[in-house]
Every structure is written in C-alpha cells, then in structure tokens.
C-alpha cells in the first residue's frame, strides 16, 4: 500500500501545477466551449447546471436511475417479507414519551424554512449555485429531521412508505418525458432545443426551461430516495419505529 | 528543502494521495465492516478532491456568470416572450444597469454588491459577451464530481444496508467472525 502511494506520488510530478490555466484539462476546447458558449446556447448563467442537465443530460438521467436503483436495492435487501421469523428480536419498542418542547418547537420553526430553501435551490439552480440533486437532498433532509425529532410515523404521515417509490418514479418520468417530448418533436433524445415549439421563448429559452424541468424531476427522485434510504436503514427495513 | 518546496507546490496532489491511501488501508486491513465502508468513503472523497483541484485556475471564480453579463445578453435578445415574473425581474435589472451607465461612480458600488469586484474588466463588455475562459474555473470536473457524489451516496447506502443485514444474520460486524461462522456452518 505504501508502494502504491509512492507510485502515485511519483506520477504526481507529471501533473500540471496548481491553478495552471494552460493545463490539459483546462485548455481543452470542450471546457473552453462550455465556459464561453453556455450563455449563448442556453441562456443559463450557471455552467455547471447547464453541462449537467443539457450537454450531459443523458449521463445525468441515468445518474438519477442509479439512485433510484439504489433505493430499490436497499428496500429489497432490508425488506421484512420472506426473511423468516428471526425478525422479532429486532422488534423495536414504540417510544411512549411525549416530544420534548424545545426540540418540537425548533422543528416547527425550522422545517418550513428548510423546505422553502430547498425549493429555492431547485427552482433557482440554473441561475445560482444549486440544482436538483442539492435541493432534493435538502428537502429529504427536512423529512429526516422530522423523523429524528419526533418519530418515523410522523414523518411517514407526510411521505408514506408505499408512495415513496412512486414519487421517485415520477421524477424519472419527468426527466425522461422531456427527452421523449424532444424525440416526438423531431429532435434527438433530450435535445431540448426543439421543445421551443411547445415552450415559450426562443430555442435558448426552451433549453433553459427544460433544464429547470429536468432539475425538478431529479429533485423528486432524490428527495424520495434520501428519505427512503434513511427510513429503511433506521428501522431495519420494517418502516415502523426506528431510532 | 527541495522536497518540502515540492510538497508545498503540489500540496493538492499530496493530500489526495495521502487521503486515498488512508482509505485504501482502511478498506484492506480493517476487520470491521463499518470501518471498511468509512475507508471507501474517504477514498471517494480523495478522488473528488483530485478532480476539483484539477479544475482550479489561478485567479478564477466559480463557473457561474455574473448578473451583469447575463442581463447584458438579455438586452440583445427579445425578452417579450419571457414569462411575466421573469419580465418584472428583467425590468428591475434594466433599471439597475441604466443607473450604472448614468453614474460611473456607481459602477464600483454595483460591482461590489455582486461580489465580483475583482473582475471589474468583465463589466466593461456588457453586451459584447466576450467571456474569457481563464476567469472561470473548469465546470466539467465539477459536473463529473456532482454525479460521483451521487454514486457515492448510492453505494454507501447499499453497503450499509448489506452490513445491517449481515449483522442481523450473524450478530457481529467483524469480518473474521462472520467467515468463521460460515465455515463452521459447512
């Protein structure tokens, strides 16, 4: 292992200097194109979101499918169905305690703010730092906070366990829907430019609006899967009372 | 001395190699499954650090265009078809930039308010939209790492689920004890 480290450090001599603008990664014309042409082609000032949702839209769509699959896998691994009878020893006791006043009040105050902020991060993701993944995680975190502060049932009153995967699937359908819509309007899959026929504005604006649409789809999936992962892991798959 | 200078010049690579080796060490030699997962997480973090440090350029800012550059672009295009809410924002921005043109002394204040005062040069080309690639860090590694983080979360979640399942089956998280139990069961 030390040998591997030494080998990697040996290779480090060939790497470009810190902050070098003419290093291969930075001077390659693809990156230059992203920086200089993004605004012309999409009217989106946040290049990261533009590259994520438009230029590399196919990649990001299957990224969303990856976390969807991970959510299904976790539910499948931990699911109680068909695992026999040795589950009783983990049967958790429902906490009879009343929620603490301070924690309860803080949650009441802070959760709406977190959720509004999450929606802002999603909706403004192509103009400022943010996007579907980030906003989705923040939104999911608000439900996890609720589940930690009260109990899992309270959180699941908002996001029922049997609807979670529907929600995640809706997100992917929104994303793929934009791709298929582009296909039907005569473009390539996920080629948002042709959506100008059904969306207001010019070609560039259509790209911008479609980016917002797919970000919302991503946010749906990420929110649902984040909470699903938490509730599966915390409740040992029973989706009942957890930590 | 030369070695120290070499490290200081390329500290990002050194840190990434050290972090990566810590992660690899944890994954290979730790007996506890949770510690292995922590090692995997550290390993992923090292790779993310490596990519993001490559994308850095001296004197560059985050790959998001400034307010003025964007709205300079909007002036050129017909914004009639914009949605109403967007249009209002456009109007406000338009007035703001009109003020800037009226009073040159306001320029500095406006630049300071948008937190990009160190790039006053780019404020000059309002409508011309000549964007200098050296003023923004490379967005591509950021995008790749955004997706890598997502994959990291997914693998970590699945790993934790499998670990929990193993604990339910064997009652231990130590790899050697689990292997013993499997052997004795045969």
Task: Record keyword descriptors for this entry.
heterodimer, A: 243 residues, mainly alpha, 10 helices, B: 186 residues, Helix Hairpins, 2 domains, elongated
Low-pLDDT windows of residues of chain B: 74-92, 95-128
Report the count of strand segments of chain B.
Answer: 0
Tally the structural domains of chain B: 2
Main β sheet profile of chain A: none
Overall mean pLDDT of chain A stands at 77
| Overall body shape of chain B | elongated
Major protein interface:
A-B, 65 and 62 residues
Structural class of chain A: mainly alpha
Explained architecture:
By secondary structure, chain A is mainly alpha-helical. Chain A has one domain (24-34, 42-85, 97-235). Chain A has helices at residues 2-12, 24-27, 29-42, 47-55, 57-78, 101-123, 132-149, 152-158, 161-184, 203-234. In chain A, α5 packs antiparallel against α9 (161-184), α6 (101-123) runs antiparallel to α7 (132-149) and α7 crosses α8 (152-158). Chain A is globular, with a radius of gyration of 22 Å. Mean pLDDT of chain A is 77; it is low at 82-90. Chain B is elongated, with a radius of gyration of 26 Å. Chain B is built from nine helices and no strands. The model of chain B is unreliable at 74-92 and 95-128 (pLDDT under 50).
């Amino acid at each position: 292992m030390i040998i591997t480290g030494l080998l990697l450090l040996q290779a480090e001599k060939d790497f470009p200097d810190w902050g070098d603008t003419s290093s291969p990664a930075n001077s390659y014309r693809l990156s230059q194109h992203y920086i200089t042409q993004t605004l012309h082609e999409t009217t989106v000032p946040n290049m990261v979101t533009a590259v994520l949702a438009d230029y590399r839209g196919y990649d990001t769509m299957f990224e969303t499918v990856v976390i969807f699959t991970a959510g299904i896998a976790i539910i499948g691994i931990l699911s109680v169905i068909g695992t026999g009878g040795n589950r009783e020893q983990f049967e958790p006791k429902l906490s009879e305690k009343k929620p603490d006043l301070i924690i309860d009040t803080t949650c009441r105050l802070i959760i709406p703010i977190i959720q509004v902020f999450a929606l802002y991060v999603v909706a403004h993701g192509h103009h400022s730092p943010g996007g579907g993944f980030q906003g989705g995680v923040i939104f999911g975190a608000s439900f996890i906070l609720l589940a930690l502060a009260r109990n899992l049932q309270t959180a699941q009153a908002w996001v029922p366990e049997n609807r979670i995967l529907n929600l995640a699937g809706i997100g992917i359908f929104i994303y793929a829907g934009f791709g298929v819509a582009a296909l039907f309007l005569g473009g390539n899959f996920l080629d948002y430019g042709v959506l100008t026929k059904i969306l207001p504005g010019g070609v560039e604006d259509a790209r911008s609006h479609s980016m917002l649409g797919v970000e919302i789809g991503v946010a749906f999936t990420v929110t649902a899967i984040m909470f699903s992962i938490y509730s599966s892991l915390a409740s040992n798959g029973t989706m009942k009372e957890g930590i | 001395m030369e070695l120290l200078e070499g490290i200081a010049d390329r500290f990002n690579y050194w840190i990434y190699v050290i972090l990566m080796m810590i992660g690899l060490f944890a994954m290979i030699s730790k007996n506890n499954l949770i510690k292995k997962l922590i090692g995997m997480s550290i390993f992923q973090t090292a790779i993310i650090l490596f990519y993001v440090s490559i994308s850095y350029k001296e004197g560059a800012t985050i790959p998001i265009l400034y307010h003025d550059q964007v709205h300079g672009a909007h002036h050129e295009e017909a914004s009639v078809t914009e949605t109403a809410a967007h249009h209002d924002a456009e109007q406000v921005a338009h007035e703001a930039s009109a003020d800037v043109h009226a009073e040159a002394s306001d320029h500095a204040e406006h630049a300071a308010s948008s937190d990009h005062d160190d790039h006053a040069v780019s404020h000059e080309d309002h409508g011309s939209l000549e964007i200098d690639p050296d003023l923004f860090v490379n967005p591509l590694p950021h995008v790749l790492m955004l997706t890598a983080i997502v994959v990291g979360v997914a693998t970590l979640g699945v790993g934790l689920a499998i670990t929990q399942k193993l604990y339910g089956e064997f009652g231990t998280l130590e790899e050697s004890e689990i292997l013993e139990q499997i052997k004795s069961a045969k």
